[in-house]
Write a structure and sequence with these properties.
alpha+beta, six-stranded mixed sheet, six-stranded antiparallel sheet, elongated, single chain
Amino acid sequence: MIAERGTRDKLEKYFDLNRPLKITLQIQGAATYDFCCFGVDKDEKLSDDRYMIFYNQLSSPRREIIGAEIPSGMEFTIRLNDLPEKIQKLVFTGSIDGAGVMREISSHKIFIGDQISAEFVGADFEKEKAITSLEIYRKNGWRFNVVARGFNGGLDTLLAFYGGEEIKNVAPPPPEPPKKISLEKKIQDGAPKLISLVKPLKVELEKRNLLDVTARVALVMDISGSMTDSYENGTVQEIVNKILPVAVQFDDDGELDFWYFGDRCERRPSVNMKNYEQAVPRSWQKLMSSLGYGTDEIVVMKEVVAEYENSRLPAYVVFITDGGFFNKDRIKNFLIEASYLPIFWQFVGVDGSGYGLLEELDNMDGRYVDNANFFALDDFKSVSNKELYSRLLNEFPSWLKLCKNNGVLDGSAKKFRPNNPPPPEKSFRDRVKNIFGF
């Protein structure tokens, strides 16, 4: 069903309300957007601020409402019949953080489950900085109302409106929502030895408008025999140190997914601010021997694809090698197939030469979107942090834009793949579930 502004109906006509219901809001535009669900009482007031679900409070007390940030929006999973009686209405809103007005957006999409959707464009709005997108309310059962109208103020105005601030001398104004924890504070509290990396990284994130991006982050590390010097002189540990803050910034869990590869590959425990100094094991020579002294990039690339191909978040993969990639046809076909998936491959050559196909990525035809970049560093440890992060993040923003505009992030691009690929290998998480039964 395609709904219009003002559409009202009973939810039970379309959904089994004994099952969780998903509500999705997305806004495409040049600004930064915040999304929120207010659970309000019979007076349409936020009498219990635990039922305000937004970026810094993603669950209600008994998880009746769970929020999850997705590209360009937020998804809410709701168990309507488990909500307390005092919650009479759920109000779903979107607001602009900073400059801009809703008339400047390119689109605003609302999804109620997989049955009902609505879409609006900038011309449907004026100078609003915040809008009420949708209401779900009790009236002889649960009903919905597609509102799509707003306020000239932002999130603070919405909070004041539903908090009842306009009724003076009755209640104190509601507290301002907690601010997102800064990268500086996260690193200072969790890994103070890495604090010098924050400033140069933030400069590049701000320059490329990446501060509000949420993504999975992975590091794939060559452990072939020719990398021996890089392990012995500390280069590999230095690489881990410098990639970790990127994961802390992009990933909600602040963790870096991690693989080693040689002739074979091994998924390692995720790297975080507590264990990053042990990412390179003291017995790395034993690991090198167990994985073989050669390189087979496809083996590890298949594992990475299995992990992220169905992700609702983009995956940013830093792939470190000292050379190789000479099997052009095999690698080229793999990257073409992977170009329909939400995975960006940032290849980095370290202390090597003869990078083969990697040096030709910018001219590789046949991909749905340009999903890979390569640069070589003669000496990783001598390059400034500013230059490193500039080069690491150079093409990621353009790939994100292409993905959003061409259906890669929502999975719809897969239907355009020219061939039916073989069934994917099971992801690390799926294998753990099979082993332990959960």
